[in-house]
Amino acid sequence: MSATVRIATGSIFVGLVVLALKALSWWLTGSIALLSDALESTVNVATAVAALIAIRVAARPADREHPYGHHKAEFFSAVLEGVMIIVAALLIMREAVHGFFNPRVLDAPLEGLLINIAASVINGWWCWVLIRGGRQLRSPALVADGHHLLSDVISSGGVVIGVALAVITGWSVLDPALAALVAVNILWSGWRVMKSSLSGLMDEAVSEDMMEKIRSTISDEATGAIEAHDLRTRHAGPKTFIDFHLVVDGQTTVDQAHDICDRVERALKGHLPGALITIHVEPEHKAKHSGVLVI
Hints:
The protein is of the alpha+beta class and about 300 residues long.
C-alpha cells in the first residue's frame, strides 16, 4: 500500500471518529451551530472516500484507452469535494434560518463544547498530516482534503466561542447566527477547492518559478544544441509533463542528439522526479531565435 493510499485511508477513519464526536456534541446540546459542524464532518467522510477512490484510479498505469495515464482522476475528486462542501453549506444555512425563527435554550452546553473541542483538536492534527503529506507526495486530492479540514478547524473554533457566548449572555439567537457564518465560510472553502482543481483539469502550466528552473536547466545542460523553443508544461496530479523543440547543428549525428536529450532529461527529472518529457529534435534551419538559448 502506497503512502498516499495509507493517508487517504486514515482520513476516512479520522473523519468517522470526528463525526461521531461532533454528532454527540450536537445531541447533548441541541445547538444548531454544533449541528452545522457535524454536517460538515459528514462531508469530510464522504470526500475522504472519494479521494481514496480517485487516488487508487490515478495510480493505475497507462493503458491503450488512457495512454497518458489516469493522473487527472485526483482533480475530479477535488472538484467533487468542492461541490459537496457547497451542498453542506446550503443545508447548514437552511438550519440556521429555521433557528432564527425558533430559538431554543441549549442543553448540557459545557459537555457538548468539550467534546467538540476534542474533535477539533483531532481534526487540526490530521489537517497538518494531509497538507504536509499531500505536498510531499504531490497529491492534489490530499491537499484539497487538508485545506477543507483547515477551514473546518477554523469554523469549529468560531462555533465553540460563539456557543459559549450564547450560553453566557443568554442570547439564543447567537446560535443560528453562528451556523449561518459557518455556512458562508464553508461556501468560500468549497469555491477555493473547486477553483484550484479546475486549473489542473484545464492543463494549467507549472508555476513561473518552476518554469524558470526548467528554462535554466535546459540552457545549462543542452550543451551541443543551439536553442530550445515552444516549451510547454502542464501538470496532472503528481505528474508534470514537459515538451519542447531542441534545435541542433545540421552536422550533429543522431547519437549525439540523443545524448544531449538524455542529459537534459536526467537534469530535469532531478528537479521534477517522475516528469514525463518529450523532446523534438530539429535541424538548425528550424531555429526561431527565441525561447531558451543554450549556453
